[in-house]
Amino acid sequence: MKKVALVTGAYQGIGRATCERLMAQDFHVIMADIQSCEYLAADYRTKGFSATNMRLDLAKSSIFPAIANSIEQQFGKLDVLINNAAILPDMGQHPSDLAEAVYRHVLEVNQIGPFLLTKALVPLLKKAPSARIVNVSSQVAQLAQLSDMNSPIKDDVCAAYQASKIGVNGNTVLFAKELEPLGIKVNSYCPGWVDTAMNTEELPDYGEEVRPKTPYEGADTAIWLATLDSNGPTASFFTDRDALNW
Ligand SMILES: NC(=O)c1ccc[n+]([C@@H]2O[C@H](COP(=O)([O-])OP(=O)(O)OC[C@H]3O[C@@H](n4cnc5c(N)ncnc54)[C@H](OP(=O)(O)O)[C@@H]3O)[C@@H](O)[C@H]2O)c1
């Protein structure tokens, strides 16, 4: 039986590239997004890949048990969970600029939703022989960077998004500790600066040699972490397959 992976935010950007790269490694991929991936998954099937789709809003946790039940019925297990979907509606906003509703919604989608989805899927991850969880985070939420007043990216402020990704890194270490005795590895990674719908603001001209990554390139560390062997790391944070401080 193929390994089964669920990727959130699968409709576009890094999530879609992650799905394509997992399919190329012979995974069955469940493409989950707030947008419908029905036609995308059908198109991948016509190309000979193994994909299904699932409509999922990370802010609506009441459907997570039904999602787990559906995966259990179809596959009986889950080998890989990639918590990739996120929103960034607060670029340029410092903590005291934030509307409460924005702060709460960003935490709901980016941190609490992935926590509760992971919790709902843990029983299925335990049924796979060597499950892996990959949480997509960001260097703008790295505490070592945020506490450095001279950091080169100190002006990249988006307080709700940053708080949510600090929480994502918390999710990583908490689940990693719980699941380590079972050989399940849980890691965070930052894809770097990637050309996706999330990056809509006018970017500075860094010169021709500095360009954002393609989504395919941005997904590389996710694929590495999803396919770690039993000697691989857990409870860690990476970019470009290199370890980062929290
Ligand atoms: N791009 C970068 O440079 C960069 C840098 C560092 C970290 N990251 C991280 O990489 C991950 C992927 O980012 P991306 O740039 O590929 O983003 P993206 O192109 O905006 O794709 C994100 C996908 O998630 C979906 N989504 C939004 N809200 C959702 C919800 N409530 N439930 C389920 N799905 C939802 C989006 O749908 P809608 O379009 O309808 O909102 C979209 O299809 C994120 O975790 C992001 O924080 C990205």
TrEMBL record:
Keywords: Oxidoreductase. It comes from the Bacteria. It holds the Pfam family adh_short. InterPro entries: NAD(P)-bd_dom_sf (IPR036291), SDR_fam (IPR002347). GO terms for molecular function: oxidoreductase activity, acting on the CH-OH group of donors, NAD or NADP as acceptor. Belongs to the short-chain dehydrogenases/reductases (SDR) family. PANTHER family: 3-OXOACYL-[ACYL-CARRIER-PROTEIN] REDUCTASE, SHORT-CHAIN DEHYDROGENASES/REDUCTASES FAMILY MEMBER. This is SDR family NAD(P)-dependent oxidoreductase. It comes from Vibrio gelatinilyticus.
